[in-house]
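RidA family protein
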Amino acid sequence: MKKIITTTKAPAPIGPYNQAILSGNTLYTSGQIALNPETGELVLDDIKIETKQVMENIKAVLEAADMTFENVIKASIFISDMGEFVNINDVYGSYFNEATAPARETVQVACLPKNVNVEISVIAVK
């Protein structure tokens, strides 16, 4: 059985998908980009600030499912410029305990929705 997870503290979906799906004890989030959920505006001034907005959006979705970053077992990071990896990784890493950090892949892609620089999705387990 699947349960749709939604929160107004993260951007609303802009297509035929949900913010997250809880199946049993496993949460699958949709990719988050740096949309400010309060203003609907993209936060693209600086890659670190952009990544922080992405992580805050993920945090809001996790909280809506009564989870935290400690529940995350897998992350997928899509970036438009591998040259920004260090900056993105610095912000991303600040949300996790390094000893219990999730599995992850980071992939450079040609283009992301709304021409953002980073998109992240996670899988979490209660």
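thats it. The CA atoms of residues 15 and 42 lie 17 Å apart. The chain has a mean pLDDT of 97. bye
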